[in-house]
# Entry
Amino acid sequence: MARCCDITGKKTTNGNNVSHSKRRVKRTFKPNIHKKTYLIPGEKPGSVSKIKLKLSSKAIRLIDKLGIEKVLEKFASN
# Structure
């Protein structure tokens, strides 16, 4: 499982741990990824489809604010 957000595209980045004596050791910064399932209303009345996504915390807050349909429309091209 790759640590990558399906909506925002956030992924693992590299950097350094810097000690008090300024020694640098390589490390990774991992995004806060969660698996979430959303229900999307279908074209027919009463029909619902499920979609499973791996999302960062920022993407979950964005979906809570705008709604799943608008977020999928906006970020479908990414």
Observations:
- The chain has one domain: 13-75.
- The radius of gyration is 17 Å.
